[in-house]
Amino acid sequence: MLESKKKPNPIDTHVGSRVRLRRTMLGMSQEKLGEALGITFQQVQKYEKGSNRIGASRLQHISDVLTVPVSYFFEDAPSSAAAPRSGMEESGSDYVVDFLSTAEGLQLNRAFVRIADPKVRKRVIDLVRSLAGSADDAQKS
Q: What span is annotated as the signal peptide, if there is one (predicted)?
């Protein structure tokens, strides 16, 4: 019987998604990150997917290039503790990273952080919640 491919470790997948998130937030291509690290863009892709594990010294180099502390890559990482987390927490964290990795998510995030007035920011949030509620209401009908 053939053994199926081993799934990436959830921590490796999370760290890779954080690399992708930070890289896209900086507007950096996989190729540019690879050049800065002395590796191919294909290797960057494998790191970002979690299919290749990032070693400690490489992670330190990535943190220097992306100008974040190493701890950034482990923020909201799935717990390895025996206590199970609710699906909401796990999917919530992944959902945010996935959303911010899209062109629309990145554009929305960049535009939102440029709004200086806190009252205007709150009104934008209220508007988006209202629109999302309208979409939910329309789907229920």
A: none
